[in-house]
Amino acid sequence: MSRLPSVTARQLIRVLQKVGFEEHHQRGSHRHLYHTRLNKWVTVPVHRGDIKRPLVVAILKQAGISEDQFRALR
Fold it and tell me: What is the pTM of this model?
């Protein structure tokens, strides 16, 4: 298994939306997404540049998405 690719906040949000998360609200520079069926919240920081890999891994874990699923949906 290779390392996760670098992603921007926009790319990460797009993948989360593909699996059913919807943008609920934004507070400052953080977007909060909600999945109604799974009753899960995920927060994605929207800043310039790429999101650091450890944070991407943590967000994917919180959302219940494996790294392989992320690569396939990207």
Answer: 0.92
